[in-house]
Design a protein that fits this description.
Blueprint lengths: L14 H4 L1 H5 L7 E2 L11 H13 L9 H15 L8 E4 L1 H13 L5 E6 L4 H8 L3 E6 L1 E2 L4 E2 L2 H7 L4 E7 L11 H13 L3 E5 L15 H4 L7 E5 L2 H4 L7 E4 L3 H13 L6 H13 L1 H23 L5 E2 L7 E5 L7 H11 L2 E2 L1 E2 L10 E5 L4 H14 L5
Parallel strand pairs: 1-13, 3-4, 3-7, 7-8, 8-9
Antiparallel strand pairs: 2-10, 5-6, 9-10, 11-12, 12-15, 14-15
Bound molecules: pyridoxal-5'-phosphate (PLP).
Length: 389
């Protein structure tokens, strides 16, 4: 398939396209949807074939025997990430929002706190707070558009109530691919403060250039008794609507807790999600390689155009298709740059404020779209801020 193809998603119950007007006031008639993290591409043919196979058969009963599905996941992790997953350690959640909520329920109690390194994927806080836990925000350090963690400073931020860290690797937003030393630092921090470490690695396949994602269990095998990893085919293959993601728990006692929480929630997987995931992880390698090359060029085009606007700075993404643009150099109030982007450029990105401490001067733009859309977005932004040039 060609990633250049424009597929009209309006009026298809697309969250990204059909909710941008009610939420951001940007009409889908002439606006560009660059918020929700799904892409405007079809998935690989092997995934479409899996669904066609299901509809050809035509009976949609309960699914059982996950052996081939689990083998496909293990195969992908081994081939693409050099990571040996024990098939018995794989749980299937309704996506990783659900995975986050399940980990919160399994590994913390009401009144406990969960640590986030902010700015970070906005929905973590939503699920955690709704469960009656609090958030301890540890703001990352932004050095010339590059996020790092300052563990010494975080020691003083913790209140003693923290039981878990929700870590994002690669990081959304900002696109950091954490190094071995950084992952070691995270593990040491968790040991020091006795935290369960949940490593959300949903963006692990979309990594650019020389950067190399290291699965947390490979980086720090010594902390497996406090480690949980979350992965999903949803971002990689653009199949988020199937709401299927994996929570991988190698430690036996954590696994028992998690299994009980799954049963308490009555969670069992959706057969469409299982068929799609198995097909993707079995036959999607070449498609993902092409996708990553395409996204890398989208990122280059976007960054070149946006960084040419005085006062705007797009972070150099090492991973993810989620550009994180700092407007602080414009000297404008948040409301003003948001208004220019929504009302003048007619683009709907995510507001940085929703990502927690450190996000206020940012907007997040989704680059998972045909190149012509990225070029159009750049040209609209250049016009909307032309008085700065
Ligand atoms: C880091 C991260 N975790 C989880 C999710 C949500 O995953 P799901 O759609 O599987 O609930 C996202 C979606 O953007 C994400 O970026």
């Amino acid at each position: 398939m060609s990633f250049d193809e424009i597929i009209d998603r309006r009026n298809t119950h697309s969250s990204k396209w059909d909710m941008m007007e009610p939420i951001y006031g940007v009409s889908p008639d002439d606006g560009l949807a660059m918020w929700v993290a799904d892409m405007d591409f079809k998935p690989p043919q092997c995934v479409l074939d899996a669904i066609i196979g299901m509809t050809d058969h035509g009976v949609f009963g309960y699914y059982a025997d996950e052996a081939s599905y689990r083998a496909a996941i293990c195969g992908w992790m081994e081939r693409r990430h050099n990571w040996a997953v024990d098939p018995e350690s794989i749980f299937t959640a309704h996506g990783l929002g659900n995975g986050t909520a399940l980990c919160t329920a399994a590994f913390t109690d009401p009144g406990d706190a969960v640590v986030l390194f902010t700015p970070v994927y906005h929905a973590f806080a939503k699920y955690i707070k709704a469960a009656g836990r609090t958030i301890t925000e540890c703001e990352m350090v932004n050095t010339d558009g590059h996020y790092t963690m300052d563990f010494d400073a975080y020691d003083d931020v913790l209140t003693g109530k923290e039981k878990m860290l929700m870590f994002c690797s690669p990081h959304n937003p900002g696109g950091r691919v954490w190094t071995q030393e950084e992952l070691q630092g995270v593990a040491d921090f968790c040991v020091k403060h006795d935290l369960i470490l949940v490593s959300d690695e949903i963006h692990h396949d979309l990594v650019f250039g020389e950067n190399k994602h290291i699965p947390m269990p490979n980086a720090v095998p010594e902390i497996s008794d406090r480690l949980v990893i979350m992965t999903a085919p949803s971002k990689t293959f653009n199949i988020a609507g199937n709401h299927t993601g994996n929570v991988i728990v190698h430690d036996k006692s954590l696994r028992e807790k998690f299994a009980t929480t799954m049963v308490a929630g009555g969670i069992s997987a959706n057969s469409f999600g299982l068929y799609m995931a198995e097909a993707a992880y079995t036959g999607g390698d070449a498609w993902v390689d092409e996708l990553v090359a395409y996204l890398a060029e989208n990122k280059r085009v976007f960054d070149e155009g946006v960084n040419a606007i005085p006062g705007l700075k797009s972070m150099n993404l090492e991973a993810t298709y989620l550009a994180w643009v700092d407007f602080s150099g414009t000297g404008m109030a948040t409301e003003e740059f948001i208004n220019r982007v929504r009302k003048v450029a007619k683009i709907a990105p995510n507001d940085g404020t929703t990502f927690g401490l450190g996000g206020d001067s940012f907007l997040r733009f989704n680059l998972g779209a045909p190149r012509s859309v990225i070029e159009e977005a750049v040209s609209r932004l250049q016009k909307a801020f032309s008085d700065l040039q």
